[in-house]
Write a structure and sequence with these properties.
single chain; 272 residues; 2 domains; 10 helices; elongated
Length: 272
C-alpha cells in the first residue's frame, strides 16, 4: 500500500494547467498596456469555452485522484482485518463521504482554474503600478511584461498542481477513512532535506482526522492554522490511515489535547 501522493497525478495536472496558460498567453500576445491586457484577460475569463475547459480539467484530475485512492484502499482491504467493511464502503461511493468529497474537489479546482486570468490581471496591475511608481518608463515596463507573465503563470500552475494534488488526495483519503470508521492516521512526511521543520516534527505522529494540529505552533513558529497532513500549500506530507494498531511501533507519538505525547498501545486504545 502506498498512500503517498501520486507524482503522475501532479504531473498531468501541471501539464493541463500549462494548456490553460497557453490560452491566456495567446490572448494577450502583443498587448502592452495594462488596460488592453486586463480587458483581454477578463474576456478569457468570461469565455464559455474557457469555463468548459476548466471544468473538464478539474473533472479529469479529481477522477484520476479518486481512482488511485480507491485502488490503495482495495489493497488495504486485502491486507487488513477490516477487509469486508472496506469493500462494502467502496461500493457506496456515490452516496457517502467520498461522493460528496469528489464533487467538492471538482468544484474547488474548477474555480481555481477559472480565476487564473483574474489573478494574473491583479498581479500585472500591481507589477505595473509598482514599476511606474519607481519611475520606470512605460516602454521599459512593456519590454518586461511578456517575461513577467510567463514567470507568473508558470509558477502559479506549478503551485496549484503541487498543492491541490496533495489536498485532493488527503481529502479523498479522509473521506474513505470516515466511511469505514477509521478516525486516526499516521502523519508521514517526505523525509528529505526540503521538509519544513514543523513537518519533520510531525513525522510518525498519530493524528485524528477531525482534530488536526497546528504543526508550526507546536514548534514555536508562527501559527498558520490547524490542518491535516498534505492539506496546506506546497506540502508533500500525506496521511496513512491507521487501519490496524499492529502497523504501529509502540510506544508511539500521539497528537492529543493540543500537544504531542508518547503513548503505549493500551493508553492509545483508551482514547480511540
Amino acid at each position: 500500500m502506498d498512500w503517498q501522493q501520486n507524482k503522475q497525478i501532479e504531473l498531468k495536472y501541471r501539464r493541463s494547467l500549462q494548456r490553460v496558460n497557453k490560452k491566456i498567453m495567446d490572448a494577450i500576445k502583443g498587448l502592452q498596456t495594462v488596460e488592453q491586457i486586463n480587458s483581454a484577460l477578463h474576456k478569457v475569463y468570461n469565455s464559455g469555452m474557457f469555463q468548459t475547459l476548466a471544468n473538464s480539467i478539474a473533472n479529469r484530475f479529481v477522477t484520476s485522484a479518486n481512482i488511485i485512492d480507491a485502488k490503495t484502499w482495495r489493497e488495504a482491504a486485502r491486507a487488513g482485518s477490516k477487509s469486508k467493511k472496506i469493500y462494502e464502503a467502496l461500493q457506496k461511493t456515490l452516496n457517502t463521504n467520498i461522493g460528496r468529497t469528489v464533487d467538492r474537489q471538482i468544484l474547488k479546482n474548477a474555480n481555481l482554474i477559472k480565476t487564473l486570468p483574474l489573478t494574473l490581471s491583479k498581479e500585472l496591475t500591481k507589477f505595473i503600478s509598482t514599476k511606474t511608481y519607481e519611475g520606470i518608463r512605460a516602454s521599459e515596463i512593456a519590454e518586461t511584461l511578456e517575461g513577467k507573465i510567463f514567470q507568473y503563470t508558470h509558477a502559479r500552475a506549478n503551485t496549484i498542481a503541487r498543492t491541490e494534488s496533495s489536498k485532493a488526495m488527503t481529502a479523498l483519503t479522509e473521506a474513505r477513512s470516515k466511511d469505514v470508521g477509521v478516525n486516526w492516521y499516521v502523519w508521514k512526511s517526505a523525509s528529505d532535506q526540503r521538509v519544513r521543520n514543523a513537518h519533520k516534527h510531525m513525522q510518525g505522529v498519530l493524528v485524528r482526522f477531525d482534530d488536526p494540529p497546528s504543526p508550526e505552533a507546536l514548534v514555536g513558529e508562527k501559527d498558520v492554522g490547524n490542518y491535516n497532513a498534505g492539506n496546506i500549500y506546497n506540502c508533500r506530507c500525506f496521511p496513512r490511515p491507521l487501519i490496524s494498531l499492529e502497523n504501529v511501533k509502540w510506544p508511539c507519538k500521539v497528537y492529543y489535547n493540543s500537544t504531542i505525547t508518547s503513548m503505549s498501545k493500551l493508553q492509545f486504545q483508551k482514547i480511540m
